[in-house]
Specification:
This protein is of the alpha+beta class and about 110 residues long. Helices cover about 45% and strands about 30% of the residues. It has 3 helices and 4 strands; from the N terminus they run βαββααβ. The protein has a 4-stranded antiparallel β-sheet with strand order 2-3-1-4. The model has no long low-confidence stretch (mean pLDDT about 95).
């Protein structure tokens, strides 16, 4: 198993608008394609205007196949166009993480 850890930094005042759009439109599409949603977390202390989004996959190949199918989905393309129209995201970081041998399975 691998974990995809995505950190998004937003312009001040735009996180709530993005989160509502993501919950209503983006997350259902991603759940259909990506399968194992670990969670979405929002900063409260530390670096503000930041979210962390996590997905689990069986392998890098599994991630690649699932994400390619999602990118080809017209609903996803429409959602992404709407996200860019919000002009909310300032920065995006993506990490692929391997679990330690004693980490619980997700």
């Amino acid at each position: 198993m691998i974990l995809e850890h995505r950190t998004y930094t937003f312009k001040p005042g735009t996180v709530d608008k993005w989160m509502k759009k993501y919950e209503a439109e983006g997350l259902p599409i991603q759940k259909r394609h990506l399968n194992r949603f670990v969670g979405l977390y929002v900063s409260e202390i530390g670096t503000l205007h930041t979210t962390v989004l996590m997905w689990a996959y069986d392998s890098l190949a599994d991630r690649e196949a699932r994400r390619q199918a999602m990118y080809a989905d017209p609903e996803w393309q429409s959602f992404i166009a709407g996200v860019w129209a919000l002009d909310a995201i300032q920065k995006q970081e993506v990490m692929i993480m391997n679990p330690a041998s004693y980490s619980p399975a997700i």
